[in-house]
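Report of the visiting student (M.T.), summer placement. My assignment was to run the structure pipeline on a short list of targets and document each run. The first record concerns ABC transporter permease.
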Amino acid sequence: MLSIRRSLSAFVAVAVGVTLVAAATLLLASGRPQVPDRLARAAVVVQSPEAGASADSFVPTRPWSATTTAELVRRLAALPGVAAAVPDRTFYAQPLVDGRPAGNDGRREDAHQGHGWSSARLGGLRLTDGEPPRRPGEVVVDRALGLRAGAPVTLLTAAGPQPYTVTGLVDGPGVHVADDVAATLAPGVRAVGLLLATGADLERVATAARGIVGADGSVLTGDARGALEPRNDARTRWIGMQVLTATAALAGFVTVFVVASTFAFTVAQRRRELGLLRAVGATGRQVRRMVYGEALVVGTAGGIAGLLVGGGLAPLLGRLLVDAGFEPSTFRVGYEHWPVALSLVAGPVISLLAVWSASRRAARIRPLEALREAAVEQRPIGRLRIATGALLVAVGVALSVGTATADEARVAAQYALYAVMALVAGATVLAPAAVGPLVRILRWPVRRPGGAIGMLVRAGASTATRRTASIAAPVLLTVAFAVLIAGMVRTTTAAYAAGRADNVNAGWIVVPDRAPGLSDQAVAATGGTALLPTTVFENYPKSSPENRPRTALGVDPAGFAAANRALTVVAGSLDDLSGDDTVVLPASANRRPTEPYALVFADGEVVSLRVVAVVTDDSIPGDLLLPRSVVRAHDPSALTSAVYVQDRIDPPLGGRIVDVVGWAAEADRAEDRLVWLFTLLLIGVSAGYGAVAVANTLLMAAAGRVADLRLIRLAGATRRQVVWLVTAESALVVLIGALLGGAVAFVGLLSIRAGLAEQAGVPVDLVVPWSVVGGVVGLCLLLAVLASALPTWRSLSRSAARSVGLG
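After the run finished, the structure tokens were exported:
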């Protein structure tokens, strides 16, 4: 006896959930790494050895040295079927326009990269005007800059501004210089592209190349060349994958709860109908099977509708993800089979999971329920439900303790999310038992001296606890996630910023402006203490993992010690950090002063260093310290990340100056922005879903209470009083859900704050964005009031006597 009116709410919930799942999985399937345009014509690419790091670290591969590269290119070029073997050299070079770094798209890493001219063959770039660069001081640039062949241009390099002459134009980002110049600016090589002769067998060439490279690299063909995409693009794509995965998971999780509460409410409304079925001979199993059948029909229909809508929205959402910075500019939406199949299955599976509890309750309805006129619930909550809810709450509390004691912020965030999920589930299961006490606590907003409306509101909520809990469940879920996610992001961001600012002993900091870093000339103009980062690799073949990447900071030891309040030397002396063979390591490296420590630098050279000091792990914003001159000698394209100065100065070319607090707040600004957008996306999904679910459930409730409300009208209540009654009931339900959800979230936030304080060693303030929380609760309250008041007002416009007669 499937009713369209009763099933509409569940259908909408399933359709919205599957829409999000379908769109997210289609976008996930499209998020494959793309072959860089500059290597698209190289059918085979030989890549240097992978770094021994996790997949989400996005560090570059370990480079080959100039000597190794020359020998490798010679042997690869001699292979049958290879027309040319071209090393791809990459270095920092950014054209200046009107005296400032060109305003290229900051998300495109190749917009400020330089290459040797021979690399243009690997991407099929052709001159649109002019001729190739052949001598130092000549360059080919992107024609989008608006320059002409023969015009002068200044390139901002790691050394500083350098004068060049434009000899040609190409239709692509970046700049190209003579190969000899590129070899000086980028002595280390990470990829060699092979251009094949006409008719050459690709697989045979790839197999022969693997024989030459051996364990000192990998050979990539076809789509596998996507591993060569810029690291920033790979990182952006990974962030987008996390966003889409979380959105799909949240959509499925929320859908199960919303549909479960909808079916629970529907079963409560149909007690007399189901009791009548039992009275005419239907068994509990038959009733349960009927409810499952209705859920299957609703889930299938909602799944198909959601798939169609999600598939249509995927291209639009893909463009929005690119604009927001969650996907690289090369992202394109494609349609795969597995997201379609998953979406078709998701609707029925979600519905069947959600209806399990409601079907058990329906099967327990006794035949005498058909004779009951009152809708008072005989038992608001059973023993099994109490045990299940208590178990979920216990799991949530245990995970909260794990959050407070976690050693890493990422682990703590995962524990906190799981803790709130368990607590939300437990609070939803136990909600009917909590309705009565909460109604008594909240009675003051709906109670007036001598008024009957408050009494009816309290009595209705207290006697129909299952109905109240079913309507409050979406609000509980929505508020819990909104408070937890928003509060967690704001609290951690503020805590990390405060910790960074507290560690710096400076008045002002010079940071890059429209450039990825500061040049040596800019650093010299400031006269401050600079950090010159570079990526190095531990060179211990028998260690695991091999080629472990490390962030090395090139510093002046005296200036660094004066600017770093957190610096604590546990062995040796920082003053000995000089020459070309010294290094300072953290205590976790398990090395002592005078011990050797070998590294592979950005130029591919292996250098044996001597440990001169050991510091605590939290003393340096990196993995090790080197003399600045050593970093510059081995990495000609390394850029300074920040310069500490005591007094405000005029910023140099490519830089700007900020105070310490501002620097600490914006140190991870790009990442914080993406995280906050991600947070708002998740909150928007859960808030919109919860508000729609509340509105749908209240619309169903309003349709089922028409006769009761008209009877109240006949008893002497005015239309305004009846509307106020249902409005107050809706507001009370939203407040109950908001209180339960807020309580659950605050447990998680308190554990997160405790964990952050333990990690930072300083007090951490709990930051809750009340505007976001207020907006979520306000949205639920607004839709709840509209969904209950408008149908009630319309139904009361008819004749009360006629309504009772028809009822």
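DSSP finds 23 helices and 23 strands in the chain. Residues 373-378, 799-807 have pLDDT under 50 and may be disordered. I thank the supervising group for their guidance throughout the placement.
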